[in-house]
# Entry
Amino acid sequence: MLGCGAGGTCILQEDSTGAPATSTQCYDNGVKILATVQMAPGAIGLTYVYKVEKNDALCYTRTLASNLSLSDGGVAGGIDSSLQDAAGTTLVTAHLDNNNIATVTCPGGGPTVFADTCGYSSLAINGAYATLGISPPTCTAGTCSF
# Structure
């Protein structure tokens, strides 16, 4: 993810009239991000899909799906995510619960509670895509294609 981190100035093109809604971000360093968001029918939840490419080559796809429900105690559920490489191979899946506890599962392994001390950035668990620098660049509206 970090090798395809978005950086520099950014152009943003949004289309919220279709289903799913889409936005495309084009960065000076050759990174482009196609984001789609769709509401699940009859559910309190959204599915976000982020496709990230650099210099017109797909780097990875990140999917985040909120699965929320209302109960007497308030909102329950969490966010499920997966990260796939350019070939579509799943690298990691994760579940973030209401208490912000992330449980990760790597292919062939069992669920494990994620700890920042494991040597990997929590971005692989709870981030949509990687950006360079301390905060994501601000994008200017314009024309950008993925």
The mean pLDDT is 83. The first strand starts at residue 10 and ends at 15.
